[in-house]
Amino acid sequence: MEYLILIAGLAVVALVIGGVVFLRPGRRKPSPPVEHAERPEVPRTGTTVLEKEDQAAPPAERAPPVEEAPVRPGVEIEQPPPGAGRLVRLRARLARSQNAFGKTLLGLLSRDTLDDDAWEEIEDTLIGADIGVAVSRQITEALRTRVQVLGTRSVEEVRALLKEELVKQIGPDFDRAVRTEPHGDKPAVVMVVGVNGTGKTTTTGKLARVLVGDGRTVLLGAADTFRAAAADQLQTWGERVGAEVVRKEEGADPASVAFDAVKRGIESKVDTVIVDTAGRLHTKTGLMDELGKVKRVIEKQAAVGEVLLVLDATTGQNGMQQARVFAEVVNITGIVLTKLDGTAKGGIVVQVQRELGVPVKLVGLGEGPDDLAPFEPEAFVDAILGDA
User: Fold this and answer.
1) Residue 304's pLDDT is what?
2) Residue 339 annotated as binding?
3) Which of 37, 56, 207, 355 has the most Cβ atoms closer than 10 angstroms to its Cβ?
4) Residue 341 annotated as binding?
5) How far apart are CA 22 and CA 15, in angstroms?
6) CA–CA gap between residue 203 and residue 189 (Å, rounded)
7) pTM for this structure?
8) A biological process (GO) annotation for this entry (predicted)?
9) Domains within the chain, CATH numbers bracketed
């Protein structure tokens, strides 16, 4: 009997010890590791401040994803040269295209005998340079009178006479300053208008460089929403000089882009907002409605100080027709003549000013980023006539 009790006790002890051992943590047989497929690394163009803040926030507080343009790596901000003296520095570009015109005139005026045929040839040369018939006749008559009074005609004297007459016709008294100074707490606003293909968007970017070179802060508005390439092009120009660009999707309301650009310019306290507008010329009525709306919307926040019309100097009379349409649609305050280095007809400066009654304020003299220059009549005429 005692023997049976002893066996039963040993069995109970064994069961207790076995249960403890079985239930102890860490004694389970470890599960085999689960192999996860390695996630491919997705190339990124940079993490924005917004994304960093979003990642740090609890899931419930995270903002919805924001669509934004990718940050392009490796874009260095450039410091362009100032605007003052640019035309003098670019004089060689003008001299190459315009010098034949100047040399022809100087050669004709320096002849020993100036008969009626010679004066007619002088007038024809002026007309051929796109100065216009009426103005060419005025210049010829003024030169004829002064040469007869002067008597002798050295090259230096003829050059001085011709320079004086040309500068007079170009209009030295025009106010050619581009109004880009802020008004109190509001930025200056510049609208750039013109037909696509004249260099309008490029001019907007180059003007930003001129202003940054002069120490101004600039914001660009990509209101030409009918061409995606225009906004992309403006983005590139802005990145190079550190200027913010306000843009929207292709086909968005141009007036909405202009409004947001000026609003952003006020908030960020920039000196100047430049708005690039669409250049379609389907009908005068459509153009008027569109540009008028853009201007009205901008002026709800800030005054439009400049409306610059961009013209291609190589298009001649076709460019003049475009200029007339825009002049009827919107109050133009100044003209930008692009590709002036690509034509020998520099007289378009005189013609377009007389036609529209507004000054040429800027000229484009090449494909380089800093080839836009403030227009200076005397430097322009000096380049045409070359050295005496």
Assistant:
1) 96
2) yes
3) 207
4) yes
5) 11
6) 15
7) 0.77
8) SRP-dependent cotranslational protein targeting to membrane
9) 188-332 (3.40.50.300)
